[in-house]
Amino acid sequence: MTLVDFLKARLDEDEVAATKASEFSAVWAETGTWCLDDMRHTVVGDGEAYCGPHNAEHIARHDPARVLCEVEAKRMIVRAHEKWCKGACETTSRGGETYDAAHWWALKALAIAYANHSDYREEWRPA
Question: Do 55 and 115 sit in the same domain of this protein?
């Protein structure tokens, strides 16, 4: 699996999860220690062990609508860089061609968010 393939697969997974979460509503809001969706359903509430004002605010900031926008933005970045990283970037070293190395580094930076995934390779970690 190439880094580009890895990123595309993770973005597909993010899109599926956000789409499922937005089945009834895509926009969430925080009100104190409650996180509500745009249909006023409780996403997380005060009685839940992990919910506090900061948790509710964080969850609301990462509502499905935002995640779907971020997925599309990251896909645009991947598309913009992948054309420069057909094989050459996979083997670019620090002494490699700077232009290709910059594209490779940008993709590696996007992948760091998925470093805990079982398919992530440490060689993709930006240096």
Answer: no
